[in-house]
Amino acid sequence: MRFHRMTTTKDNAWEQSWKIYQSNFPSGEQRLLMDQKRALVDDRYHCMAILDHDEVVGIVFYWVLPSVLFVEYLAIGEAFKGRGIGSAVLSMLKQQPGRLILEIDPPIDETSIRRMNFYKRDGWVLNPYLHMNLPLRVGDEEVPLRVMTVDTILSEVEYDAFLSLLMTDIIQYGEGCPRP
Prior knowledge:
8 strands, single chain, about 30% strand, Aminopeptidase, 5 helices, alpha+beta
């Protein structure tokens, strides 16, 4: 298994990766294709297809920011779930520099609790901060999410710095947001 970085929608892995993206996240948490294209040219954005023998089995889209590696999207293709791919991806991400951070849905139903427990088994901890996902599409509302980090929770100073990065560096790639 390996990561393959996509920097254009013309990449051979793009079509299958985009299908996995669209089928695994609510539309309110997804970028429009034109905004995704803008993000692809940002050197800090790593839009990765997860390949197994050149077959796209999942995606991991993350941001390399000052002292932070923010995992914005991680999804495994439906046909490949339950094979340990997600755990392997998390292990690969832990080898990268920077504090690992990701967002999950609040653990309120069977699916969201199962997802949270998957991360907990891998050493992630749920942070106590009330966190709202900024809308990436015009007309959408903020979505309540929870932040998880590896091993220890973020201090309030670290969380505030992370939130500032989201609001200045990442939201610019949402619909209707100021262009860089």
